[in-house]
Amino acid sequence: MANIPDAALGFILQNLKESVQYNTELIGGVKDNVKELCEDLETLRAFIREYTDKYSDNEILEKLASEIRGVVYRAEDAIETYISCASVQKLRRAISKATHFVDYISDLRAVGKEIEKVSKDVQEIYQNRAALGFAAMQIEEISNRRQKKKKTPVVEEDNVVGFDDAAKEVIELLTGESDDQSDQLEVISIIGMLGLGKTTLAKKVLNDPKIEYEFYTRAFVNVSQEYERKEMFLKILGQFTQITDQMNKMSDEQLCKELHDQLKTRKYLIVMDDVWTNEAWDQLKGAFPNNNKRSRVLITSRHKPVAVHANQSIDPYFLRFLYPEESRELLRRKVFGNNCCPSELEAYELRILQKCDGLPLAIVVVAGILVNHRDRTDWWKKVAEDVNDYVARKQEQSYDVIKLSYNHMPYYLKPCFLYLGVFREDFEIPVWKLVRLWIAEGFIPRDGCMSLEDIAEDYLEELVDRNLVMVGHRRLTGQIKTCRIHDTLRDFCKKEATKENLFQEIKRKLTRLTLLNTLLDWKHMSTLGKLEKLEVLKLKDNAFQGELWRTEGGGFRNLKVLHIGSTNLVMWKALASHFPILRSLFLRHCTKLEAVPSGLGDIATLQEIDLYCTNSMVAKSARNIQVLKLKVQANDKNKRGAAFKLSVYPPDQ
Ligand SMILES: Nc1ncnc2c1ncn2[C@@H]1O[C@H](COP(=O)(O)OP(=O)(O)OP(=O)(O)O)[C@@H](O)[C@H]1O
Ligand SMILES: [Mg+2]
């Protein structure tokens, strides 16, 4: 239990509370217990929230947090067992309750008592918190979130600080005519450690008027570790020509030739950002013709050998660290939106900057920690103490600064941030997709009358404010359209999520899930299929939309109950192997659906199909399944399977 992550715990508590609230009508007999239990859970949740926000090393808190973890899990088991038992009872309309059901009630009560006890401990600690020495920081309440966000200055990556000299030198390397080979294609490289600003500099150079004038054909492509050749070529082509259907169908070899041919007559500059290996360069270089037009390829890389391999005759450009005054300007711009800082904070500012040691990535991440409490001296003092010395120049220690930012992150942002680890490196993430995935994972709790999408977008803005996510493009309305995550941050997310076991934890525990108005695409059902323990899945009003659902992959191995309500689904394609132990299928207001997949008739465990306001074609397909089921039952001499039941409302015969 001790390793249960706080982020996952907060999430489980939230889910549990919602599940209790959602099912109050089922809980009837034990309503009072459950109400109290809910209040107690809320106290525990507030505690976890504060605990994860401050990440205190306090021993008493540590011990209490581990007790809470234990109790939350027992509560979760008891409540879920109770609710699923109660719902089965209700469905079967049983009049008398079976004895084992009564046992579940007593389990629930026992857990209630335990929760009550831990909750008292928590309250005591709260009351004495000043004496225990951890009252300094206030919790960041959700209700303050929107207000705070407005105060945060918007500073995005096009606000480059310094680098004028660096840009000038690189431009000189790209356009200079000093050596006699300059008519030839040349490869120029910018080298530097992670987060030093290579990508930022390369973009600044690419947008420089002199470069725009010299090179009519320009393209920027991020290579990274997990590139695909075909995608790289298409991305480059797409920046100066129209991508045709024919191009989309080409193999990577054909595309390499196509790009080569298109570039042959042009004076071009292509930026290949973040090339990791010699092999990567070797695989891509064939697309760049040497056309005696002084074309250039600009590579950025963390590794000098890559630069030497690509061009032995020109030394790579080694990017420098920021000068102290540039570091200060960058921090101030990110925190205050201008180059000013209140004089009482200057001493802390200096200490922080010394520790960041001129590394832009460290500076922007620390700025993200400061920005939310930028006027509080005690906050600056704490951050100054917490940033490790010489964080910057040792690669492995740059993790420390990200960890620090993560530790200071409010509980609700943590799972959302860690989730970004699932995207490919430097992938331009469409926000609509991210938002829906967050919602599907259950990371976005309800908050008053705001829609889940709006809350999710607010979360994203917060991550941007903290410099943990970079904005790709914004819409005209100012909303973020696409975003990216720096690959060091992404590595952190992946490692931390594995360490915290976040996704496994959620997967392991979630047995019931209800989605409502999430408007997800049926494609994303495969994400839900990954919830290994999922037994009951209710897709209520417009949880999913789209005309075709082709159930894919491993399907839903443990799903017993599937409820699909109000959707525009027309065609559902699935096999028995996708739902090997399904017992009950409920379809409500699926008016456009054409049929229940006939394959479902082969599910040995299927006992019931319940149709409510579906069309006659669906009823017909369900009757075919019923006939099949009855045949199988008639042939089964041992009469092992339970009788199959089909109900259709309104009756159509
Ligand atoms: N001169 C600068 N002015 C403002 N922000 C900067 C500057 N240099 C870097 N940054 C910011 O620092 C972060 C890291 O920069 P960048 O991504 O350019 O580093 P990098 O050297 O390309 O890192 P990697 O090796 O991981 O690709 C980004 O958030 C970027 O916006
Ligand atoms: Mg980069």
Can you walk me through this structure?
The protein is 50% helix and 12% strand. The protein has 27 helices and 18 strands. The strands form 5 sheets. The protein has a 6-stranded parallel beta sheet with strand order 9-11-14-16-17-18, with helices on one face. Strand 7 (470-474) and strand 8 (480-484) form a beta hairpin. The radius of gyration is 29 Å and the shape is flat. The model is unreliable at 1-5, 91-102, 132-157 and 503-507 (pLDDT under 50). Residues 157, 160-163, 192, 194-200, 274, 302, 330, 360-361, 364, 467, 470, 486-488 line the site of adenosine-5'-triphosphate.
Q: Architecture of the largest domain, according to CATH?
A: 3-Layer(aba) Sandwich
The name of the CATH topology of the largest domain is: Rossmann fold
* Cα Rg: 29 Å
Structural class: alpha/beta
CATH class of the largest domain: Alpha Beta
Give the helix level as a range of percent. 40-55%
How many beta strands in the DSSP annotation? 18
What is the terminal-to-terminal distance?
56 Å
Q: How many strands, what sense, and barrel or not for the largest sheet?
A: 6 strands, parallel
Number of domain units: 4
CATH H-level name of the largest domain... which superfamily?
P-loop containing nucleotide triphosphate hydrolases
Poorly predicted tracts of residues? 1-5, 91-102, 132-157, 503-507
Walk across the major sheet and give the strand order: 9-11-14-16-17-18
- Percentage beta strand: 5-15%
Kindly report the average pLDDT value: 78
Outline, from the CA principal axes?
flat
* Ligand inventory: adenosine-5'-triphosphate, magnesium ion
